[in-house]
Queue: 4 jobs
Job 1
Amino acid sequence: MFRFLRYVSVVSIAIVVAACPFGIAGDGVLHCYLTWQGDTSTTMTVNYHAAPGHGPSVVYYDTAPRGGDLNAYQFEVTGSSHRIPVLELLAGAQRDVHVVELTGLEPGTAYYFVAGSTETGFTDEKMFRTIPANGAVNFVTGGDMGTGDVVRDLLSHAAIQSPYFGLIGGDVAYADGEARQWREWEQWLDNWESEMVTPEGYSVPMILAIGNHETRGGFGQFVAPKAAAPFYFGYFAQHGSGLEFGRRAYFDRWIGSAVRLFVLDTGHVTPLNGAQKTWLERELAATPADVLTLAVYHVPMYPSHRNFAPPSVSALVRNAWRPAFDACSLTAAFENHDHTQKRTKRLKNDVPDPNGTLYIGDGCFGRSPREGNQAIALEDPTELANLGLSESYLAAWDSRRHFWSVDIAADATSIDFQAIDESGTVFDTYTLVP
Ligand SMILES: [Fe+2]
């Protein structure tokens, strides 16, 4: 019996050591990627993962390349680290998640940095750039990704656009908030870090909305959000820092002085109504009329695959937020979840309006495309009448993997939208003049 137990424990240790990517060396930076917790022109947050228990969280940086020579960098900043409790139990998954925020940066400026500590070692030198003050930027957006090979193809075409950031509308790695699916995030982060580097060499920061596949249970996880979505909150410093603080799944970002982006939660860990809606209404109303307003969230108000009509989640989202969007003439909303491509007419109160909101989607940045069931239904006069609509809200739709490339002109005088597929082909375009 004892011989058997001893055999089991030796085998277990062997499995643990083999499964742990840094268990033997005891050091090394595992992942390094960029988010924002605040101003996109003057701050940047470096997130990195390293073996547990190793040293402080440090980033050395400068406006000129220093080749990783720590003594040569002009600036050094220290952050903090945290652990995700459920990962502590899984062989190979344990790590410290380090968060280091760089502040006081110059807008529209390139920076060179290394992250780590003398105990873990440092990353190779990486580059990023801050958002220009006038908001003349381009970015890429989409949702419903996963970790398949086609995601790498899409990301490589996205990086060629030289985006200032990637805006992800939920359903990112498809780990469903389950700790045992931590390897999905390993692959997703590997894909992002290797592919999302622009031709000039800039690592592309990310802004992430939450989707049902970030969350154990998918919807309605209001009681213990951080336990239901441990990776979304634990891996990405966006609103708050560390796991012990009030990390929130809805927040806003100014993109220069001319564009304000609202990141929203379509009922995954935050109720649609209540504090989120109150905050959204207040902040939209307080935004000057000449500022472009954008929103990103997971479940579409104007679906191309799933049902438009109640009791769909789409109808719930419309009921909650559409009045606020309409009241301020929200410029554009990025929608996901349906695994199709779609572009709506400019809409107010569900009908075309020259000053209405453009809804862009529909979340097919890697997952298998679905048929446009609702889009097809909208072409049938009887179905339209059943939905209480006089005409289809859609201007274009396709069953095709893609991401959207979005170009905002200086001082936000116009926005160009391009849908680009996995072969790099542009297959839908639209220019919006606010
Ligand atoms: Fe989804």
Note: The chain has nine helices and 24 strands.
Job 2
Amino acid sequence: MTKALVLGGGLSGLAAAYTLTKNEISSLLLERDETLGGLASSYLIDGSYVPKTYHHVMYGDAATLKIIRDLNLEKDLYWRKLKVGFYSKNKFYDFSSSISILKFKPISMWGRVKFGLLVLRARRKSNWQELDGVNVEDYCLKTTGKEAYKLINYIVQAKFAEPSNNVSAAWLMSRFGHESKSVSDQFGYLKGGIEQIIQGLAVRCAKKGTIKTNAKVTRINVKRGKVDKVEYEENGQIKEVEPNIVISTLPVPVLLKVAEDLPDEYRRSLENIRYKASLCAAVGLSRRVSPFYWLNVMDLDRHPFVGVFEHGHLNTELKYPSVMFVVKYLNSTDSFWQKPDQEIIEEFLSHLNEVFDCDVKEHLLWWRLHRAEYSTPLFTPNYSKFMPETKSPVEGLYVGGISQTYPRDRYMGTALQTGMAVAEKVLAEYRT
Ligand SMILES: Cc1cc2nc3c(=O)[nH]c(=O)nc-3n(C[C@H](O)[C@H](O)[C@H](O)COP(=O)(O)OP(=O)(O)OC[C@H]3O[C@@H](n4cnc5c(N)ncnc54)[C@H](O)[C@@H]3O)c2cc1C
């Protein structure tokens, strides 16, 4: 009988399996996709790994840096001082330093000062739980006024494609506080790509356990309040395991779908959690196009994307001058999501031409489009009331993953932390 079953082979699932392995507990990890890594997975193009969505290591991301050390990858980690910018009404604005922020014309001088003061206030403490029930719009209109709110509202829209009154101020202040300390102008990357972390974890997990890709979990059977069997589909066949511990790092809507017999109250609570989808195009280019590594595109009603990341500035190992990532967050029910890949790419390219005033298509070498239906949970006001606990009310079922990072943002480090935390919880309970 398999003792521990880990569902999902993204960073959270891999971190959970890795923590169990380090403690001599064998596990079976099931991942639906052909490759491991989930949101942080990569394409193999011309013999090198390219992240499916732009990925950099954030300067203050202690959990990711620790894993990099554990996996002996420190020698491959490097940092680059790169430019961050905004694009609004046909103009580019640098946003890489405090001075450049003070010169940020799209909002008034007073608005910039108020914005700066809000960020300073956010940095004064690390826990903003007290703002859990307050929405961003109310909080900012009261504390910063309308001008600074214009910029804050854009940041919320860009991240969640959702009105600011439906997003918790606890998330915003946590992002401006702890997270903005991490998002300095220093961006980290690994020789060999982010894939090195994924493969490093996988190799260590495989020493004590088993990893299966192309293994889609189809049912978690709960009997008399306890996990009974887990079914998964592999090569068109339904297989069964009878674990005594299940760690789910599946997106919450997927967990709800496969675990039909969850207790009613628990199910109703989890049903409050909505996710946002993302579309991220990766385009290989024969020249660099953007002067910025990270460009925020503010005219949301005019352009179909919110961010453009030119990885040629960060990734020193590319076999061609650049890879540009173009990203949009949305609902998976939106009509834009329903469009065929080719149409989305055409639309992105024509708007890139407009933004950079150059024929990007002329420099196009290849493209891929990554669709993530569960890209981030929407951190609504009072999210903490339904955020899943590590230990579920079902005996033997534990939960990790990006539904639990709140009020902190979801990034590689917070995903890894939830994976390690859920495994530590299991270890603590099963050792006693
Ligand atoms: C566009 C974008 C850009 C980002 N950029 C950065 C960045 O620059 N820096 C940074 O630090 N972080 C970044 N992140 C965040 C980071 O990628 C995530 O926080 C992290 O990868 C989440 O890991 P996870 O394991 O919790 O979730 P996921 O990666 O979503 O893992 C869940 C796994 O479950 C699997 N699964 C789903 N259904 C089933 C099923 N039925 N059976 C089996 N398996 C199933 C999925 O295939 C997936 O592998 C970015 C994210 C996005 C979307």
Note: The chain has three domains: 4-41+194-273+381-431, 97-182, 275-377.
Job 3
Amino acid sequence: MTSARPQILIVDDEPANVQVVAEALAGFDLYFATNGARALQMAVSQPFDLILLDVVMPNMDGFEVLRWLKSEAKTQHIPVIFITAMTDVNDEARGFDLGAVDYIVKPISPPITRARVRTHIEIKRQRDLLEQHAAMDGLTKIANRRRFDESLARAWRAAQRSAEPLTLMLIDVDYFKRYNDYYGHSPGDECLRRIAHALEHAFSRGDDLAARYGGEEFALLIAGDQGETAARRVIDAIADLEIPHARSDASVFVSVSLGAVVTRPDLTQPDTALSAADRLLYAAKEAGRDQGHLDDQISGRRVVIRREPENPTVVSLP
Ligand SMILES: [Mg+2]
């Protein structure tokens, strides 16, 4: 998340230089580091919008700091402007080669420094916005399929290193075509939005991801092997919305069917795991919808998850 006020990290081994730059950038949220190691430490722990980096510093110089920033996923997209007294064109070229976005030469001119900083922050904001939109489903505002596929690839690589299990789930809204035909497309869209919101709300922990996978299909990626609990949570969360569905044969309310796989990267591949979830989803539909079919590839357990029946009304007799 980017805060309203851009956050800028100023890195220079001479506090007097930091002071000059800071005065030029009054109004921004400013942070300081007087050596490269400290700068890197701060850059991974906080989402900066821009880094102003001195080239000549003892121990770790600006080039080395920049190379490190570009090699880390967390910091590689932060724009870096070099601030240097050197006027050697080779050094400038080297900085650009390493991925610096601009150069400011000491002694700095406050108005020019401000203008360049503003420009690069604006470019970064625009790019962040584009990336956000490219990864977001337009109708429901949750992650789209592209983002899901990217997250799955990333989670898979992480799980390969850690040997941790993953749960993949495909969810389909029961009789959604009938819902659209009966209630109209606008209520149909609203129904998808409510389901998306409920899923996102139920699975917003850490690296868990809820995505719209297409049409009336959603996908979940969950760290760990608690697939059965998660599947139950999905079925209950959608039932709890109590969206009336007069044309459903599965329930009086909008319900979902789902297929889930609990697995580990040493057992299968992402595409194969998704196909397996898809087959389980199909089986859940065939078996009457409003249920989940889960295959735990680690324990070998297969389960069918159905909604808990409503509590029978208790009538107290005199
Ligand atoms: Mg210096």
Note: The CA atoms of residues 284 and 293 lie 6 Å apart.
Job 4
Amino acid sequence: MKRCGIVVHDTECGDLWARRLEGSGLDLLGIHPAGGPDAHLSLVSCMETVRTPAFRAFRRRANAAGLAVEFEMHALSWLLPRDLFGDRPEWFREENGARTPRFNCCASDPDALRFVAGRAAELAALFPSDTHRYHFWPDDVAEAKCSCPRCRALSASDQALVLANAVAEGVRRTDPEGRAAYLAYGAALEPPRRVRPAPGVFLEFAPMDRDHDRPLFDPASACNAGQVRHLPELLSLFGTEDATALDYWTDNSFFSRWTRPPARFARDAAVCRADAAAYARAGFEAVTCFACFLGEDYEERWGAPPLDGFLAALRAARRP
Ligand SMILES: [Zn+2]
């Protein structure tokens, strides 16, 4: 395993996280505008944030501490703005026989895909990545696929990969070394079977529906066995170059059900230790986890969260 890191909200980047990261031994930091149905709005707000002197100073501190910074966001409703629906309904999804601007887009309309690629090029310029990796994901829904006649034979995964391929083409216009993530979570955990990854598309595996109290690769957990069932096929299809696990061990936004105030974070690092080592054995090049809802408002309410065991587990998995 080459890299290990965490993913935090842009709104929580500041002195507190800078201090935690300095000396953490991590080498990867993902910045994540909040997901959910309004993810395209938090993306726009993050655009403002990254231009501020405070964020630039934060990023410099992270870089000086040895962390490469990249951005991870649900982006499709920004890549294809919903207000285009009136003029271009055929760019959007068909659902129950009618076009709808809700979530994602048609995966078979060449003009829609060209538009998405162009916007991905813009987005890559707005969110430059230290690693040349760009995580511009589909909208934040478990499954929202187009069922128009041309898309009907494509699974949700196939359609997600069509979009990732378009994003990869777009980011390379801005960053010739740019690579784009295929986010395997929800319905997209099932491998794409009718679409092949274009050059520069890598696997990002995020088993959100897992049992968080049991090791992911514990065969006695039916839930977790379901989450990893297709993992060998996914790794074989996408290869291990840049393959990234994005897990939830320290995702206090998840454990707070995405509602503030943050819940108290008091989880055991044992599951993280087992999983991070297993990810490394499976061939992942990067192991990361969300660490949201652990910012200043968390410390004011609960004091310092117990992160040391988790950071140690990530570092240990990186060692060969
Ligand atoms: Zn379609």
Note: Strands lie at 3-8, 28-31, 68-74, 93-95, 98-100, 133-137, 179-184, 201-205, 244-247, 286-290.
